[in-house]
Amino acid sequence: MRGVVLRVVTVLEEPFVMVSENVLGKPKKYQGFSIDVLESLSTYLGFTYEIYVAPDQKYGLPLENGTWNGLIGELVLKRADIGISALTITPDRENVVDFTTRYMDYSVGVLLQKAEKTMDMFACLAPFDLSLWACIAGTVLLVGLLVYLLNWLNPPRLQMGSMTSTTLYNSMIFFSFYPSCSTGGEVPYTTLATRMMMGAWWLFALIVISSYTANLAAFLTITRIENSIQSLQDLSRQTDIPYGTVLDSAVYEHVRVKGMNPFEKNSMYSKLWQMINRSNGSENNVQESQIGIHKVKYGNYAFVWDAAVLEYVALNDPDCSFYTVGNTIADRGYGIALQHGSPYRDVFSQRYCC
């Protein structure tokens, strides 16, 4: 293929195809996963290429008159020799163009916004209900009053120069609070009844403190699990967060075919299709992937799209406001599209399969 100049059509889609240099008066330079594959083929096979972006920035859909638009349309109309981007191999596309074997697996993912972290100054009170805190406070006062009455009925003998009885009685209420702080009191209680009651009170305080510590640890652990949607199944089961994809895209068709297939065993796709197809698809779907990403970041929305693209967006977001979930089973792949009957298909496939 040395000396051959191929005309390449593409669609901008991070991280597959991106503009790396755009100098006025010079051809644009591109970079990305797909560009790396194309450059490797060019180096090994010896051909050169001229690359341009599809005029309508679409991958391609069949029109009513039987023609195609977008990247696929450029190949059908023979304006380009090959097409490369985040282009998935689908049966409809294979009917009008040729594809090489897949050079990367494809799976559907979901882009969501991370839950906002808020600081609550009263978070330490969360392990117990307000009614329980009120009961504990009332119990402290009650025990203090009982200690006071027991020592008033049978006052301890105080040595000469020790605290007065007034100081002793004033300290009763504080002594009932000491066990919750894991500390002791300053007043020696010599009566048997007072000692027995305070022993029971210390045991009760130990149980309460242990329960509080365990509940606090569980509460802090649960608050770290902020994202309730961890899979496509979780997304399909909920209706609080609307979700969609690019209208009439390969992902849209993928969900539609599986969602409307009565023999599909997984009911997840039928639920996904019900949400995506609201108002004939106009309610929750977008025209471009960048619009869907923008809706996720600044609104209550989940965007269903190529998992590789969404992972790149989440990792490179300066605010770290995204997270992704997806289907780990790859049933399709990304490939290079060529004109129907192109002699270069097998040559390309053999090269990057070696």
Automatic annotation (TrEMBL):
The UniProt keyword set, sorted, is: Cell membrane, Glycoprotein, Ion channel, Ion transport, Ligand-gated ion channel, Membrane, Postsynaptic cell membrane, Receptor, Synapse, Transmembrane, Transmembrane helix, Transport
Q: Which Gene3D superfamilies match?
A: 1.10.287.70, Periplasmic binding protein-like II (3.40.190.10)
Query: Membrane topology type, per the record?
Result: Multi-pass membrane protein
Function text: Receptor for glutamate that functions as a ligand-gated ion channel in the central nervous system and plays an important role in excitatory synaptic transmission. L-glutamate acts as an excitatory neurotransmitter at many synapses in the central nervous system.
Residues the entry annotates as binding L-glutamate: T88, R93, D306
- Which gene specifies this protein's sequence? Grid2
Domain Ionotropic glutamate receptor L-glutamate and glycine-binding stretches: 15-77
Domain Ionotropic glutamate receptor C-terminal: residue ranges = 5-352
Database matches in Pfam families = Lig_chan, Lig_chan-Glu_bd
What's the source species for this entry?
A: Ophiophagus hannah
A Gene Ontology CC term for this entry? postsynaptic membrane
What Gene Ontology molecular-function terms does this entry list?
A: ligand-gated monoatomic ion channel activity; signaling receptor activity
UniProt site (Crucial to convey clamshell closure to channel opening)? I229
Q: Which domain of life is it from?
A: Eukaryota
Residues crossing the lipid bilayer are: 130-150, 200-222
List the residues marked with site Interaction with the cone snail toxin Con-ikot-ikot: R256
Q: Which InterPro entries match?
A: Glu/Gly-bd, Iono_Glu_rcpt_met, Ionotropic_Glu_rcpt, Iontro_rcpt_C
- First-listed, main subcellular location of the protein, grouped into a coarse class: membrane
Q: Where does it localize?
A: Cell membrane; Postsynaptic cell membrane
The protein depicted here goes by the name Glutamate receptor
